[in-house]
């Protein structure tokens, strides 16, 4: 399917929902460019922490009554970046419901022109070989169904607006609504050096799996590229071109921090005959984004 291209208006304001480690880095970059930023966190302590860092922030805790969510100031922004985490490890199963609630509020307010959902390459769980944005998903695999429901809720923001546009062809603002999903791979960067995951001396599984990673700076760059894109919407993978085994990468990470070489569960070697590789081909071609840290082995060696 060919992506529709629409007029790309100047960005004046961005709301970052769930503004944590990555969202804060995005906020700083947007503010440098003169874009007004409003961020949210789920509790007042974290919101105050953002304020102390110079980021305007308010509390938004989900799920909540839809009518109450609709009135939140975040939905007065021109663009929304949804960066809340699924919290699967905490046993949460309501991620898709939260995303749906945010999309409904964005529709109701009629101020939001585009939404970027920061999803996860975990949506490719259960697959092997090269995986692309149009790969058929394994809905029986862990996390996949919930992540897919969340993505579809955001992509339907675009469809909803397209339907409205047909009813009111004179309304250019409605016709310019956009919805993007950015499937981010494992994040590395400041305060997230992969070598630090080795400090507890745990046994690492799947040594022959291919690492699918992206640096924080490139994740921010891709989000900005989507916000500025003339493409009407779609799904994009956020991943570097670094394609080495988990064993190679974490050995290099340990060496960079002068840590002992990690221990791997070699019993899983036979299970990785066709390791999963997340493709960045579409992202690099359609967004024309040049990665700053496309080679994450070099990044480790440089110690940045």
UniProtKB/TrEMBL annotation:
It comes from the Bacteria. Residues 14-74 form the Pyrroline-5-carboxylate reductase catalytic N-terminal domain. GO terms for cellular component: cytoplasm. InterPro entries: NAD(P)-bd_dom_sf, NAD(P)-dependent_oxidoreduct, P5C_Rdtase_cat_N. Transmembrane segments: none annotated. GO terms for molecular function: aldehyde dehydrogenase (NAD+) activity. SUPFAM superfamilies: NAD(P)-binding Rossmann-fold domains. It holds the Pfam family F420_oxidored. PANTHER family: NAD(P)-BINDING DOMAIN-CONTAINING PROTEIN-RELATED, PROTEIN YEEZ. This is NAD(P)-dependent oxidoreductase. It comes from Colwellia psychrerythraea (Vibrio psychroerythus).
